[in-house]
Design a protein that fits this description.
Helices cover 84% and strands 0% of the residues. The chain has seven helices and no strands. The longest helix has 37 residues, at 83-119. The N and C termini lie close together (10 Å).
Length: 239
Amino acid sequence: MDKLHLDKHISQQFDSELEDLKSQVLEMGGMVEQQIIDAVESLESADSKLAEKVMRIEDEIDLREVALDEACMTVLACRQPAASDLRMVLTVTKMTRDLERMGDEAQKIAKMAISLTQDGAAPGGYEEVRHMGTQVQNMVHSVLDAFARFDVEKALNVAKADKQVDREYKSAMREIVTYMMEDPRSIGRVMNILWALRSLERIGDHTRNLAEHIIFLVKGLDVRHVTVSEIERKIQKSQ
């Protein structure tokens, strides 16, 4: 299993700064992970208070993104990192951007939950939300663990899992259309479920981005915009 071992520097402060960046990303990731869990639960259980909590936390996630960007700029300006250290800083900036967008999508799910508590439950789609929600939550948890361990194999598995989420989304869309055709009066409520599923699919996409950032960090490989099979081949060639 490939691991990244950041160089030890004469300046212990530099080592501490890099480790702090990693810790802050993991803290932000943990907040986003919980936000996604709560957003899905708020929709399933029609819990408007929990949905409101999800929306409030989004402000804290935005602040963390800004703080991490500033910390990365300071490291770049003062330390002029190279090689794996530079990749670490660049990866942090990319990961925080994706994490913030994942938080935005969780907030959208919470808004759909509030709409459903006000307008009444949709006639279906909740099982699909629950199933996709579980898949996405597992992806997020795994990708954060992959970052904590600098684990390329685990990151690759997360990228593979995104394909299954995409398939589940397409299948769920067919079910949603069926509900709307059977009861046109429920279209407004069913659309809330549809947008929640769309947000979950987007969270899966952003989680795959996180996995790709980790592969770049550890292996120095740019694997954006290529298939999972091509990513796997690139990793094998780099062994």
